[in-house]
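OP here, attaching both records as promised.
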Amino acid sequence: MKTSIAAFSGMIAKQELECFVKTEDGFAISLSNEIIFLDRGCQVISKHLYDGLIVAMDDTETGTIVVNAKGDVDVINLNQIENIFSGEEFNGASFSEDKIFISQENNEILTIYKTGVYALSAPADESNIIHVSDDGNSLAVASKGGALTIFGPSLKTAHHSPPRDDDLEVISAICSNGRGRFLVSRSSLGLVVDERAVNRIELWDIKKGLIMEAEVPSRITCIAPHQNGYVAGCFEGEVILIGQDLQVSTISKSEYSISDILEWEGDIIYSCWFFVERMNQSGTKIWSFEHQNLVKGILKIGDNRVVVFGKGGDANTGNHISLILPDGETQEDITSGKSEMKTIELSDERHSGMLSENESSAASQRAPLDGIEDLISEIIEPIEDTEYEKESHNGDLLESLASTARSLNIPPVANPGEDITVSSNEDSKADIILDGSDSYDPDGEIVSWSWSTASGRNLGQSKIVRVRLNPGVHVFTLKVTDNMGAESESSMTVRVID
């Protein structure tokens, strides 16, 4: 039996979350056109219309600072939004106690005080990560090309580490732990075979430069301080502890990438796929929380609470925000008490066993482009049956053909993914994601998706649908519709073995 916890409270946002930050009263989230403040019970305190993609937020005593991609720095306080600085386009920011460090699209690092007063600027490579040290005296900037630059006080370059000339490298995460040092995660494509690890961590000191490095199991996706070291999540699902001497120990291995991680009373809380889990440093799981969406991130707020942010992908599913109590009451059997669960249960006898006659027929029909032959003949017929005796008619012919082509509509292509075989878990079930994201329309766009079983049962109206299956063979059909009403469908088969 598994131990689980249920959500204490929650809400649904119709738009995808851009940023979130802890506030004095709870937390704040930014959507595509508004910023919402919520209390510690996940109840809305206030909403503010806001135009512009937000790249970073920080909460202060005087209000919540918002940095947007257009180049504005604003402060939201009560019902007022005040602009305190405007500059070039911004792509990232990091906050110290009294300053804001901003990465600009013009390849400069800009520093301003939180009052909006300009301080300093310095050139930097096109960056994708910017991280200020806990004491605010140094700054680590990772470029999109894989270079690392450490800036000291007054934005003077202290250390610069370019990527290797004979390989392609990327910096995926940077973390500091209050000792004036940065832990940097670096990965390469491994084009050159030598002693250097493809996936590694580097410890940098503002004075000494690179102190040491160590290999990690796979590319790190998230890092957080943990007691005397760090805890990190990896792309291949590993959760690792990292000591001050960069001793790496793998304490857990999930089937899915780790999306976020944090320390909780000496334990570790991390998110992967649809789950948030807590475990101790020995790798023993304490509880698991199953979310309605893919988990985008987790945030620790006051009163011993953690907020879980989901990514639903469309307005029908919604982007769920759940509030959990890590030290709250637990329950046995993760599937109990989940009346709000959006997972589609396909575990009855009608959906397990060998292929039925209808399922075999559906599996063999791999969705040709319906009507493509008629479309081709419709274009060719006028060309073969019409004679033009004068060269002056060529312009009319081309114009006619162009007009005909514009009036025709090529059907979309439904791509439900390849047939797969998976093993069931300890509960003799298998959680499967049906992903139709690779579907496309050659001359327009897809406006709707629809998943169904071989028996005709509707599963959902989104690109991605999650199903839970018993051992057996299951056939699923994806139908897509383009912006001019043309449809096509295709099927895929999932075989679950016990």
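Record two, same layout:
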Amino acid sequence: MRQQSHRDARAARLRRAAFALALAGIVTLAACSKKEAAAPAPRPVVAVAVHTDGSAMAAASLPGEVQARYSTPLSFRVGGKIIERRVRLGDVVKNGQVVARLDPADAQKNAASAQAQLEAAQHSLVYAKQQLDRDQAQAKENLIAPAQLEQTTNAYASAAAQRDQAAQQAALSKDQLQYTTLMADHAGVITAEQADTGQNVSAGQAVYNLAWSGDIDVVCDVPESALAALSIGQTAKVTLAALPGRSFTARVRELSPAADPQSRTYRAKLTLDNAGPDVRLGMTADVALSAASPSDSSVNSVANSSAKSAATESGSFTVPASALFHDGTQPAVWVVRPADSAPGVGTPGVDTLELRRVTVTRYNERTIVIGQGLKDGERVVLQGVHTVTAGEKVHVIPPLHPEDFAS
């Protein structure tokens, strides 16, 4: 009986051990299945394959603006109240034409006071001269002491100096009166009005802005990537959006030696040849740079040839501005790297993202032109560039409206 009870107890222990092992296996399998289910799925991204623009000159085409070669503010040389303005915005003025006047009352009083002081000084000088002549005649006869003659001579010299001072003050007051009339010092056109009738202005405060007539410039900002292809004296072809079908020849006359601290571009000024009256100030222009002339320096020629060969080899790519990202301070784009492009990297059969630095040669309103950094056929992320990370697993989906991303 005892032996039977011992066998039953042993069997019960074996059953409990088997149950525990089975339960542990089930828990392990459940844990494995949870880990597999938690693996993230590849993230969908909007990307398209890019292709070269097929134009080597696209990177050398820059937007610009038509401006006068010289533009200066017109201001009074004295302060006062404006009582009259004779020209308005857009008026053409001639050299020496009166454009505005100040209230001359105070200046007239100062001029009259200075003139009265000059007349008094002249009378004093005449009296001192007469006294000097009398004393000199008496001194010859030894009728006066030498000290008295010295005093008379000194009084005459003092009167002469006072007369000269009064004359200079009268001339200055006369100039001050003339300065109440503002005249154009060059022929040109009024491009801005900065003060109105009845306003009190200080000396040097701008009242108008005058664009001189004569040479017309096209001003554009050159990125540093295109700087090597530009030199003083180089010719360019200029087209104006307001004058379709026409083109003008321009020559680079000035190139900034330092980049703008904000845009990191270099200001270039080109003078238009034979700009007609239909070329108006402020028109938008497109500047297509031509090859450097043979008279350019050898250093510039080598730099230009290197830049052209690099542009021909890589080509340029026009992509939407929404694709632009930044790697530190450098422009960059997200490139979709195919699963089989880098063996041993990433998950087999899954595309990943790579942050690629690029060179932007032109910024347009909705697009950018990339000169270096991309290859033909590579896929570039167009949307959500600030929400992805390097090495992230993705799968590419086309844009919902492909026409919105057309170059």
